[in-house]
Amino acid sequence: MSVQSHSGARPTLEDVAAKAGVSRATASRVLNASPRVSPEAHEAVTAAVMELGYQPNQAARALVTRRSGAVAVVFSEPEPKIFDDPHFAWLIRSAARSLADADVQMVLMLVHSPQDQARAERFLAGGHVDGALLFAPHKGDQLPTVARKLPLPVVYAGRPWGSLRGIHTVDHDNEGGGLLATEHLISLGRKKIVSVTGPLDEHSAMDRLAGWRTAVGADDETTALMTADGGFSREGGRKAMEALLARVPDLDAAFVASDHMAAGVLDALREAGKRVPEDVAIVGFDDHPMIAPHTTPSLTSVRQDTSAQVRHMVTHLLRLLRGESIRARREVLPTVLVRRESS
């Protein structure tokens, strides 16, 4: 049978069905991946789609399925932090790739001010996306509370503040990573091991600090003396190390809770005339591919596989969107030490 759409017109589902020799309903079932079609019908419809160059009308499909084909990736962080810290660029790239592999459009949302939050709440509740991946690590952030009330599935990165009951999260073993890093420094014979922490309104920073405390057996007084908050920034890392050198001039090692901060720590040690690793051994956290191998000296770091975290988040969200009944839980991914020249 020879079938042709109207001259110059976009092929329709009826054209595909006629070309394949099946009913419109059968053609629709094939295009919507229904299992209720025969292999012969599936092959015929697929061949017709390819020959005619048919593309579904996404707006019409959305009206029928009540799906947008899009997922929001929401960061509740100040914009300068998003664009200055390579860690966030890697997260965004990983999310875009994982969602594209699932044929889902990514909608990036940056939320920091109360106005941003109100706008995000309206957008997420308005049917513009089918679900959300939420990065909201800070204590006091109201966005996780808002997200719990949304009429769409949400998967969280890391451990948000408040109860974890009924929510889906994918995290890394931050405390185990901090312990691993510090025990490595102890194994090198280092005696005065300080720590540059992230902001302690984030669970990841608190957990990494807890790993250091366990390894060195630090009480609260020792922790106050031997640690400084670097704010997860390079400049913050530099200033934190300057403060620690003033407080603990005979320090001989540092566990730094992010590679971005560790780059600043190396700057401060260089300016102070300290050799790494001869005078001070350094271990970072993230094993960021754009930082750890490229510092001078190259940085020993605890690897958290950011791409794997995002893939797990996307897989979890897609299962929720398919209506699968899965238990809400906190999934914790392992961390490993990658040794380089700094220790």
From TrEMBL:
DNA-binding found in the keyword field: yes
Domain of life according to the entry: Bacteria
Gene3D superfamilies: 3.40.50.2300, lambda repressor-like DNA-binding domains (1.10.260.40)
An MF annotation (GO) of this entry: DNA-binding transcription factor activity
Span list, region Disordered: 1-20
UniProt xrefs under Pfam families: LacI (PF00356), Peripla_BP_3 (PF13377)
SUPFAM superfamilies: lambda repressor-like DNA-binding domains (SSF47413), Periplasmic binding protein-like I (SSF53822)
Protein name: LacI family transcriptional regulator
